[in-house]
């Protein structure tokens, strides 16, 4: 440890670091997490690379060595297949589907960008910093960023965009609605924006990243409904034509703040059948498929001409069991028994060829690195039978599992049906189209959850996208009165722990609260989380510098063709 | 002839009104609601209700029907509830694409099937007849998605002689577009060949056995002339009717082919509209297909009546 490094670190702690940053340093010194996790957490708090480097040097570790970017060949147009096509108008703040977010994300940019390793990178913001209790986050914006309209980006653009995101009608409310109102987005100066949150949220910067895919920064004078008719984002590519259900064309934006993108442009073709997209990739008609699945795209796996891109994430299926009905599922022992019948390693092998992590009946996916000390729930038929007997159902009972025709979900439903037979449960399956499954009203509490099947059937399976942090899953899917609480679960202790978790400034505290929540969820078992599967994309060998994104963004600004 | 055409047109109009009522009623029966389909399962009910009101789908059904049909007859097909753009701007391209595919398939399958059917009839009971009949039957029995995948694998991926997608790059010339449409057209040929060839064969056999054919031979007319002047003219009458009825399928019913070859045809457009409760697109799309179908059958009727004067005269009486 040299004197200069120590001086730099002490200076940073004294002059710049707040309680969160100092807690981060203390946690690291105390061995709470490793070097990689330190860097990841530092990026969330907006700690600069020089400060992290100084810390590492002080502690005798190699300094930060950012990998040099791969030399990319310039030129060519990347031909991308997107499955399925966007299901509605391309309007960023209303994005709710894969096709829409991929189409918008190709040309749009965010305040920050989350990487595969959960690091936060600067994008349109260059730094961010919380106040002492993480209720106010201040973002410094990148200067001299040009929109494709020719305007220079200022705080007004960010404030207008974010006020729209925090207003009724925005699909981003699922991620930010619990903490942010339109009035909470405040311009500090031309290049500074402050977010005043309703409650402390220590991981708020994640919610400004590409993972909140609606949060594409648009000019303050953006007119709703004009996204596809006029290029007006800040990204490396500008959207120059869009035909619903058919495709989109993007050209390189010469005024991009990031320099000169390697590709001349991107041509997107929408596919509604995986077989057609697979054939197109194998025949060389397209170079990249934004999202593939093992179940539907098997010809692409183990093919020497195809590269499979993977990203670990928290995309998962939830099996909620209504805790408030006067039926057998009301008893937590029955819910536990059902969970104990599942052979999760076998399920992951069968459905994903092991391209998935096993779930422990909580939203704490392995990728979050939380509550890892809690033992994994394993198949145990003997214990399951004992629990059923204790609950007064030694001979089992009949129940219906309702779900949707999406991906591998029908196969999972059949596996659950076969598994619970071992404890005498006669399960009937009702498999609806996704449209029918999400149909009906979902008024949300306190007036109830409407009549939509996915929030009201006794037991079901629903598909959930990846989240960079588990906040929305804890609040909306498991919290009392959560709008997507399909189990109608309510536990005051759990609710209090969620609040503590969100406000926790240290890794140790976050892990402590997560562990407590994990244990409560294992006991109550309102929802089974069988697995968290990886996000997969496929490309030809010509594709260089591409990295899959856990939420499905197709980010091509730093990619090229060989 | 004019009276015949008038009667046919009036009948077509009544059919269209019935189709419009049927498709409108059927669309209402689809599960889910428009706002929910557009905004997704995780949207708040308030947003869903707001959007439904904005789109006018919360009005009484008869008001919605009246408003839609009134605009339709004025040439305004409305705005897509899903994409918020004029329906015709999307439907026009899809319809044009479907017509292109139907045309290429038509050009391939009609002469090939008629030739096969007539040849089989002329060689009745012999090996040629059996080969043509059995091949046609076997191909018809294979579902189109199987034959399409087979063609994609063999001609597209292994031999690499034809593109696996049906959409030619923008700005492609006529022959390039035809090249891109060949693979899906071949899949359609495989489906339709057996059926049309069978009709042509049966019609030809009937004509060959007819008194007028025997009389023609007895008058000393050569075989070629008998076949072209007397047999074909009569034998093709039922075949024309069959081909006309296939037009509806060729234009609006190629969902599987369009999906497998990723072709922006009207079948896929309507299917997506049905899935996402895009009423205006669905209703207008079906009605447009009905119009195309009725025009095709009307043309077939005219051709039929030109070839068979008995039809003309019966209609005029």
Q: What is the number of E strands of chain A?
A: 20
Strand content of chain A: 15-25%
Main structural class of chain A: alpha+beta
Largest sheet of chain A: 12 strands, mixed
User: Mean pLDDT of chain B, as a whole number?
Assistant: 88
Could you walk me through the main structural features you see in this protein, from its secondary elements to its overall organization?
- The complex is a heterodimer of chains A (562) and B (317).
- Chain A has 562 residues and is an alpha+beta fold.
- Chain A has 4 domains: 3-58, no CATH class; 69-108 and 235-305 and 541-562, D-Maltodextrin-Binding Protein, domain 2 (3-Layer(aba) Sandwich); 112-222, Dipeptide-binding Protein, Domain 1 (Dipeptide-binding Protein, domain 1); 313-533, Dipeptide-binding Protein, domain 3 (Roll).
- Helices cover 29% and strands 20% of the residues of chain A.
- Chain A has 17 helices and 20 strands.
- In chain A, strands 1, 8, 9, 10, 11, 12, 13, 14, 15, 16, 17 and 18 form a 12-stranded mixed β-sheet that branches. A 4-stranded antiparallel β-sheet of chain A has the order 4-5-7-6, with helices on one face.
- In chain A, helix 9 packs antiparallel against helix 11 (381-390).
- The radius of gyration of chain A is 24 Å and the shape is globular.
- In chain B, 41% of the residues are buried.
- Chain B is globular, with a radius of gyration of 24 Å.
- Chain B is mostly helical and 317 residues long.
- The mean pLDDT of chain B is 88.
- Chain B is built from 14 helices and no strands.
- At the A-B interface, helix 8 and helix 13 of A face helix 2, helix 3, helix 7 and helix 12 of B.
List keywords for this structure.
heterodimer, A: 562 residues, alpha+beta, D-Maltodextrin-Binding Protein, domain 2, Dipeptide-binding Protein, domain 1, twelve-stranded mixed β-sheet, 20 strands, 20% strand, B: 317 residues, mainly alpha, MetI-like fold, 14 helices
């Amino acid at each position: 440890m040299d004197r200069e490094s120590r001086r730099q670190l002490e200076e940073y702690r004294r002059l710049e670091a707040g309680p969160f940053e100092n807690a981060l340093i203390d946690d690291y010194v105390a061995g709470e997490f490793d070097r990689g996790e330190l860097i990841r957490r530092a990026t969330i708090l907006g700690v600069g690379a020089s400060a992290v480097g100084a810390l590492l040097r002080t502690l005798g570790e190699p300094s930060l060595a950012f990998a040099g970017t791969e030399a990319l060949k310039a030129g060519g147009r990347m031909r991308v297949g997107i499955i399925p096509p966007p299901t509605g108008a391309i309007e960023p703040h209303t994005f709710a589907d894969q096709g829409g977010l991929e189409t918008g994300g190709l040309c749009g940019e965010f305040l920050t960008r989350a990487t595969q390793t959960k690091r936060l990178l600067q994008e349109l913001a260059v730094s961010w910093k919380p106040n002492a209790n993480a209720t106010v986050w201040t973002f410094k914006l990148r200067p001299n960023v040009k929109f494709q309209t020719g305007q220079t980006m200022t705080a007004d653009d960010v404030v207008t965009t974010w006020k729209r995101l925090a207003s009724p009608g925005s699909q981003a409310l699922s991620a930010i609605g619990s903490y942010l109102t339109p009035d909470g987005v405040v311009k500090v100066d031309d290049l500074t924006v402050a977010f005043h949150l309703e409650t402390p949220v220590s991981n708020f910067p994640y919610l400004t990243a590409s993972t909140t895919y609606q949060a594409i920064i648009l000019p303050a004078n953006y007119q709703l409904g004009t996204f596809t008719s006029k290029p007006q984002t800040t990204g490396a590519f500008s959207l120059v034509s869009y035909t619903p259900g058919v495709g989109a064309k993007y050209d390189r934006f010469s005024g991009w703040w990031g320099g000169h993108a390697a590709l001349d442009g991107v041509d997107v073709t929408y596919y509604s059948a995986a077989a057609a997209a697979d054939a197109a990739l194998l025949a060389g008609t397209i170079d990249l498929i934004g999202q593939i699945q093992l179940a539907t795209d098997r010809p692409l796996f183990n093919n020497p001409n195809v590269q499979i891109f993977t990203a670990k994430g928290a995309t998962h299926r939830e099996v909620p069991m209504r805790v408030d009905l006067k039926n057998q599922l009301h008893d937590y022992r029955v819910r536990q028994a059902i969970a104990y019948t599942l052979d999760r390693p076998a399920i992951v092998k069968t459905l994903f060829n092991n391209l998935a992590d096993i779930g422990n009946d909580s939203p704490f996916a392995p990728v979050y690195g939380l509550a890892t000390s809690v033992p994994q729930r394993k198949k145990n038929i003997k214990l399951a039978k004992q629990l059923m007997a204790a609950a007064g159902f030694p001979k089992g009972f009949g129940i219906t599992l309702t779900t949707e025709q999406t991906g591998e979900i029908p196969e999972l439903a059949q596996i659950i049906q076969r598994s619970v037979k071992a404890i005498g449960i006669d399960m009937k399956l009702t498999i609806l189209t996704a449209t029918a499954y999400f149909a009906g009203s979902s008024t949300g509490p306190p007036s109830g959850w409407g009549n939509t099947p996915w929030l009201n059937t006794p037991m079901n399976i629903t598909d959930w996208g990846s989240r960079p942090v588990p906040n929305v899953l804890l609040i909306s899917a498991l919290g009392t009165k959560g709008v997507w609480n399909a189990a109608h679960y309510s536990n005051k202790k759990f609710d209090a722990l969620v609040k503590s978790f969100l406000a926790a400034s240290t890794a140790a505290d976050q892990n402590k609260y997560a562990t407590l929540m994990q244990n409560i969820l294992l006991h109550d078992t309102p929802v089974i989380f069988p697995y968290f599967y990886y996000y997969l994309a496929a490309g030809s060998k010509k594709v260089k510098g591409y990295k899959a994104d856990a939420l499905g963004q197709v980010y091509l600004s730093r990619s090229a063709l060989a | 002839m004019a009276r015949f055409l008038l009667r046919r047109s009036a009948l077509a109009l009544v059919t269209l009104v019935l189709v419009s009522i049927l498709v409108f009623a059927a669309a209402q029966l689809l599960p889910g609601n428009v706002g929910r389909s557009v905004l997704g399962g995780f949207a708040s009910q308030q947003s869903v209700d707001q959007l439904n009101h904005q789109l006018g789908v919360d009005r009484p059904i008869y008001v919605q029907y009246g408003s839609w049909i009134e605009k339709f007859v004025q040439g305004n097909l409305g705005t897509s509830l899903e994409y918020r753009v004029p329906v015709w701007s999307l439907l026009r391209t899809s319809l044009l694409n479907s017509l292109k595919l139907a045309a290429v398939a038509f050009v391939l399958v009609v002469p090939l099937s008629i030739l096969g059917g007539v040849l089989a009839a002329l060689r009745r009971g012999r090996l040629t007849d059996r080969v043509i009949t059995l091949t046609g039957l076997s191909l018809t029995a294979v579902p189109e998605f199987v034959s399409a995948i087979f063609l994609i694998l063999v001609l597209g991926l292994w031999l690499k002689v034809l593109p696996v997608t049906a959409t030619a790059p923008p700005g492609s010339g006529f022959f390039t577009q035809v090249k891109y449409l060949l693979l899906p057209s071949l899949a359609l040929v495989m489906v339709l060949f057996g059926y049309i060839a069978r009709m042509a064969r049966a019609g030809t056999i009937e004509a060959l056995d007819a008194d007028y054919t025997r009389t023609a031979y007895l008058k000393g007319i050569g075989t070629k002339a008998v076949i072209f002047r007397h047999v074909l003219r009569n034998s093709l009458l039922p075949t024309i009717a069959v081909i006309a009825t296939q037009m509806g399928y060729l234009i609006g019913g190629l969902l599987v082919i369009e999906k497998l070859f990723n072709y922006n045809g009207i079948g896929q457009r309507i299917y997506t509209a049905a899935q996402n409760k895009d009423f205006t697109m669905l209703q207008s799309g079906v009605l447009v297909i009905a119009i195309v179908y009725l025009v095709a059958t009307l043309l077939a009727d005219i051709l039929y009546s030109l070839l068979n004067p008995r039809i003309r005269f019966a209609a005029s009486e």
